[in-house]
Design a protein that fits this description.
- By secondary structure, the protein is an alpha/beta fold.
- The protein is 26% helix and 22% strand.
- It contains 13 helices and 25 strands.
- The strands form 6 sheets. The protein has a 7-stranded mixed β-sheet, with helices on one face. A 7-stranded mixed β-sheet has the order 19-16-17-18-12-15-20, with no helix packed on it.
- Helix 2 crosses helix 11, helix 7 packs across helix 8 and helix 11 packs across helix 12.
- Adenosine-5'-triphosphate binds next to helix 2 and strand 8.
- The site of adenosine-5'-triphosphate has 15 residues, from helix 2 and strand 8.
Length: 560
């Protein structure tokens, strides 16, 4: 079978060598926050690889830390994976499903002299562990008899020992060059209620111990994870080999394969930082359209296919890199350009009055819904004496090469008429209240018999037919291009853009009053917009700008 990345190369190799006869992956989120775009990459890799090889992919919640986890997160994770277009079918699992098994294996390890109960405290543990350049020292409890460890471990389980007083560690090698192999912790005491197992347990297995066991029980063949786990792979394999004497052991062991995590410019991605943004009210919630969470991107107007396309384009690599956020924008823009219905909305309106237009007269134009795709049909737009145009499309004193409206200039109103500005009417504060213009009746439809050229074409909305809509514009939430290069003494929160949300009370063409949550449009000259699913009401849509029209990615990629 053809492969398209190094993970698939390994799999093809494994199938050809008959190491495995089928492919079984898993996506293992910790339910301690909402999923982000980095997780979307991992989901696409895990589910996508299974699909490609006709295999299976499990959704496994890595719920080994009761203090930080919650069902709210479990539910949101399921919703997000489904929305992205993947289906785990019956294969929904929890690390906590295997607590009994993990415990059983731990007793086996103790009896086999492969694990012991240790009483070193936090800083003593690090001191005994040594450094990258010097070996560690044996814990004073390393040599204690297995029976003694077993009794203590049982006391840990029954709650007779307090948190921090004891932990179970694997007995491997305190001089191993790989620090993860220097007798790592495999069980710790945590007197916390778990969202699934309640108060049944007061000891919890560590991720590095529970994870291989989960993979193995579920029959996972390829355990795909991010690069920081590369140094944990020997421990992953150690656990599997040590529990291998169990009669339940299958003929093969799962294989761990690491890939580079996604880093995006102008974006922080760790759940810890995202939670901080939410808790400190820098954003309006996990699904704020400025957040890089899947729920935020959904609300902003991204489609599942655009995120899958993004994952496809960034590919899978073995070394860390930074992806330009412009590529993400490019993926949604490409898709919406093909299929989003066009509409005219004046974000920041100023009124134009056509002084030579007969009072009460109305005109009507038939306009294509999407010039890129005539199959999307057309709609009728009315035109009259009073119109809205963008405030920034007029300047009283224009600079050179300003081709929009100014006193004496002529512009085209998109698909309608040419107009010339003659007079500015100001209110008592000196602000522009109205622009008095004349139109050329011979320019109907946007051209004149003398083929007179005008350089500016403006979008507009007929005042009589206009509906009021709220429009929200976003900037990157984070102002630092490379989030990894944060200067010393600074915190991530110092780089949150306080002006990243702008709210406009706008005038829209009438059909937009009917827009439903997640309907998507291109507002002429303004970008792509999506109806907000939370704050909209019937006849009162709120529009989020998904992305602007200007493509910086196309430019970047054609230079290279
Ligand atoms: P975070 O630090 O953001 O909380 P995490 O790795 O702790 O990330 P998990 O819930 O443990 O989050 O992640 C589930 C899966 O998603 C893991 O296999 C992890 O490797 C993968 N993953 C997390 N972040 C990224 C990323 N930025 N790019 C690709 N995969 C990721
Ligand atoms: Mg994690």
């Amino acid at each position: 079978m053809e492969s398209s990345n190094f993970i698939q190369d390994f799999i093809v190799e494994d199938l050809e060598s008959k190491r495995y006869s089928d492919v079984h992956t898993r996506f293992p989120p910790e339910p301690n926050g909402y999923l982000h775009i980095g997780h979307a990459k991992s989901i696409c890799i895990n589910f996508g690889t299974a699909l490609k090889f006709n295999g299976k992919c499990n959704l496994r919640f890595d719920d080994t830390n009761p203090a930080k986890e919650d069902v709210e997160y479990v539910d949101s994770i399921k919703e997000d994976v489904k929305w992205l277009g993947f289906d785990w079918g019956e294969h929904e699992f929890y690390a906590s499903d295997y607590y009994d098994l993990c415990y059983e294996f731990a007793e086996q390890l103790i009896l086999a002299g492969k694990a012991y109960v240790c009483h070193l405290k936090g800083d003593e543990v690090s001191e005994y562990r040594g450094t990258l350049t010097s070996p560690g020292k044996d814990s004073p409890w390393r040599g204690r008899p297995a029976q003694e460890s077993l009794e203590l471990f049982r006391k840990m389980r029954s709650g007779e020992i307090e948190e921090g007083e004891a932990f179970l560690r694997a007995k491997i090698d305190m001089a191993d060059p790989n620090m993860n192999m220097r007798d790592p912790a495999i069980y710790r005491i945590k007197k916390a209620v778990h969202h699934r197992t309640g108060d049944k347990w007061v000891i919890y297995p560590m991720y590095d111990y529970a994870h291989p066991i989960g993979d193995w029980v579920e029959g996972v063949t390829h355990s795909i994870c991010t690069l920081e786990f590369e140094a944990h792979r020997p421990l992953y394999e150690w656990v599997l080999n040590e529990i291998g004497s169990s009669p339940k052991m299958p003929a093969y062991l799962p294989r761990q394969i690491e890939f580079a995590r996604l880093n995006l410019t102008y974006t922080v991605m760790s759940k810890r930082l995202l939670r901080e943004l939410v808790e400190n009210n820098h954003v309006l919630g996990w699904d704020d359209p400025r957040m890089p969470t899947i729920s935020g991107l959904r609300r902003r107007g991204y489609t599942p296919s655009s995120l899958r396309e993004f994952a496809e384009r960034i590919g899978v690599a073995k070394t860390d890199s930074m992806v330009d956020i412009a590529l993400l924008y490019f993926c949604i823009r490409e898709e919406l350009n093909k299929n989003a219905q066009r509409a005219m909305v004046v974000l920041d309106p100023v009124k134009v009055v056509l002084t030579n237009w007969e009072d009460g007269k109305e005109d009507e134009f038939e306009i294509l819904n999407n010039p890129e795709n005539p199959e999307q049909g057309s709609r009728k737009l009315t035109f009259g004496k009073e119109l809205y145009i963008e405030r920034e499309d007029f300047m009283e004193i224009p600079p050179k090469k300003y081709f929009r409206l100014f006193p004496g200039s002529e512009v085209r109103l998109k698909d309608a008429y040419y107009i010339t500005c003659n007079e500015i009417v100001k209110n008592e504060n000196g602000d522009i209240a109205e622009l008095h213009c004349t139109y050329d009746p011979q320019s109907r439809g946007g051209e004149t018999p003398d083929a007179r050229k005008v350089k500016g074409t403006l979008h507009w909305v007929n005042c009589k037919a206009a509906v009021d809509v709220e429009v929200r514009l976003f900037e990157n939430l984070f102002t630092l291009e490379n989030p990894a290069a944060i200067p010393e003494g600074k915190s991530y929160m110092d780089y949150v853009d306080k002006n990243s949300l702008a709210i406009k009370q706008s005038k829209a063409e009438p059909m937009l009053a009917e827009a439903k949550p997640y309907d998507r449009f291109q507002f002429l000259r303004q970008g792509y917009f999506c109806v907000d699913a939370k704050d909209s009401a019937p006849q009162k849509p709120v529009f989020n700008r998904t992305v602007g029209l200007k493509d910086t990615w196309g430019k970047i990629s054609s230079q290279t």
